[in-house]
Amino acid sequence: MKQYLALCQRIVDEGVWVENERTGKRCLTVINADLNYDVANNQFPLITTRKSFWKAAIAEMLGYIRGYDNAADFRALGTKTWDMNANDNAAWQANPHRKGEDDMGRVYGVQGRSWQKPDGSTIDQLRKIIDNLSKGIDDRGEILTFYNPGEFDMGCLRPCMHTHTFSLLGDTLHLTSYQRSCDVPLGLNFNQIQVFALLAIVAQITGHKPGQAYHKIVNAHIYEDQLELMRDVQLKREPFPSPQLKINPDIKSLEDLETWVTMDDFEVIGYHHHDPIKYPFSV
């Protein structure tokens, strides 16, 4: 929580205005931010200076794990985060690759579970990682990446948090996650939750202790229509202590995650928070 607020304050104090062509808005921007989360001691990085809808963040990550490419599937899991990008993005609506309502194209989890090779076959990146880690193998290439420039035109949005690298030291698993762009008021807490939960879940299903999650952000920004709420409301509030995340111990495999797991298998303990803040979202 302190890291999050420190980054918000840094953007307010040091940020430079940058025009964003995609949204037509200005962003107050800083370059390079490094955050880390203590998964080993279950210090869940959930924002307390406003209400955070953490279940939607985990549901979105579960959809990536399953390789979903349709906003309706994400809604069924409990998150509407892809509704606007799938259906209200004018450029995507006019894209010949779009299959119809709710189609997201070849984004995020599709790349992670079905990266297409030139010969037409596919690579399941996540399966390879889980298989290796379950055997105690770290080949220094346990990398899950969603960033495929050759297929950017086949999806509704380039990935923001684009690569996850797992590292095994003894029986402890660590994670380093890379993000090219971050809407800090709206997106960052989702991203923090997902980095933390991804390490916790993968450690659990591969039989390792979770260690540290390192979250590296290149472009961290606050949109011009979000600035007043951040500066004059959220940054004025005192944070509460960090809660903890409880994951159903019966989740023991990738197949479990692909089939029966729901948001009922996750619980946050000790979450105290201030009132919600309705930040504008830019498509």
Automatic annotation (TrEMBL):
| Entry's Gene Ontology molecular function annotations | thymidylate synthase activity
Localization in the cell: Cytoplasm
- Residues annotated for dUMP binding in this entry: R22, R180, S181, C182, D183, N191, H221, I222, Y223
One of its GO biological process terms is: methylation
Q: Which UniProt keywords apply?
A: Cytoplasm, Methyltransferase, Nucleotide biosynthesis, Transferase
EC assignment? 2.1.1.45
Q: Which Gene3D superfamilies match?
A: Thymidylate synthase/dCMP hydroxymethylase domain (3.30.572.10)
Q: Which reaction does it catalyse?
A: dUMP + (6R)-5,10-methylene-5,6,7,8-tetrahydrofolate = 7,8-dihydrofolate + dTMP
| Top-level lineage group | Bacteria
Identify the metabolic or biological route this protein is part of.
Pyrimidine metabolism; dTTP biosynthesis
Identify the residues that the record assigns to the Thymidylate synthase/dCMP hydroxymethylase domain, covering every copy.
2-283
Active site positions = C160
Q: What is known about its subunit structure?
A: Homodimer.
Sum up the protein's function in the record's words. Answer: Catalyzes the reductive methylation of 2'-deoxyuridine-5'-monophosphate (dUMP) to 2'-deoxythymidine-5'-monophosphate (dTMP) while utilizing 5,10-methylenetetrahydrofolate (mTHF) as the methyl donor and reductant in the reaction, yielding dihydrofolate (DHF) as a by-product. This enzymatic reaction provides an intracellular de novo source of dTMP, an essential precursor for DNA biosynthesis.
Query: Family assignment?
Result: Belongs to the thymidylate synthase family. Bacterial-type ThyA subfamily.
What this protein is called in its record is Thymidylate synthase
